[in-house]
Fold this protein.
Amino acid sequence: MEWLVMSTERIGFIGLGVMGLPMARNLITAGFSLTVNDRVAERAAAVGKEGARLAGSAREVTENSDIVISMVPSSPDVEAVYFGRGGIAEAARPDLLAIDMSTIAPGVAKKVAEKAAALGIRTLDAPVTGGEIGAVQATLTIMIGGDADDVVRAMPLFQAMGKSVVHIGPHGAGQTCKLANQIAVAVNNLAASEALVFAASQGIDLEKCREVLASGSGSSHAFRTFAPKMLARDFKPGFTIDLQQKDLRLVLDTAFDAHVSLPGTALTHQLYSALQQAGGGKQAHIALIKAIERLSGVEARTSS
Ligand code: NAD
């Protein structure tokens, strides 16, 4: 809490979706003065009612802020927010710090940092993990690429939104770490899906089996947190299949360029493509189990 009392910086927040809205709320709760924008006006209005100033563009957010955060879907969205018409770059000035917390390509994060630096804007890439619940409860894990001085300057904000804050390395390093995390999320999700479908095919008690797997040597966040929802057929997002596919595409493109082989990630990406083709892209990423169920003709559920 010490950090929160010491900072008097004015904060801008662009992108108030599933993640950005609760993150912005936590900054307001921590006492920061906020100016916000979302291309969907009603989303910004929701934070406006809680004390944030509303701005018509990223440029207007930036004119009223010392530090600007963006939390938008993908690489082209971030480039538009920074360098598009009405973007952050139009309000460039010395001492402005722009922090992108979206998940985007590490190469694009580096390019954004270079272009911004040429205009005198300091930047950090600071993607997050922990999902909507982590955003709401301010328990996100935040991984950062950029200069140490800027990380120290932004630390009061990070502390207001997250629990674990790690400076990974130079610009782009935060995004690279986030993509490594997404590999682990996807492959653990696949492991949980296969284990539950196998157990269902053999007719054993799925709830007891899940409990054992959640504390066994093969356990992971997927077994502890995703598996109960899979069995209860709760596929409401949170984090959608479409967003996970965006992340896995970034992983596979980056790995392709580096001649790195990621067979588990590639397989999971293909299974998600089948679910997207069947109209499931807006479901939670844990609906991966449906792909395994369809291949086997067996459903793993504990509810009727
Ligand atoms: P979302 O689609 O719910 O929200 C994105 C918001 O950005 C929307 O409100 C959209 O209107 C706004 N936006 C897009 N372009 C804009 C622009 N040019 N100007 C102003 N507003 C703009 O997405 P989300 O789930 O909040 O995810 C945001 C980012 O965080 C993504 O990169 C995602 O991969 C990452 N992420 C999501 C989760 C999750 O559980 N949802 C978890 C970790 C990381």
Remarks:
- Strands lie at 11-14, 34-37, 53-54, 67-70, 97-100, 122-125, 128-129, 140-146, 162-169.
- The longest helix spans residues 173-201.
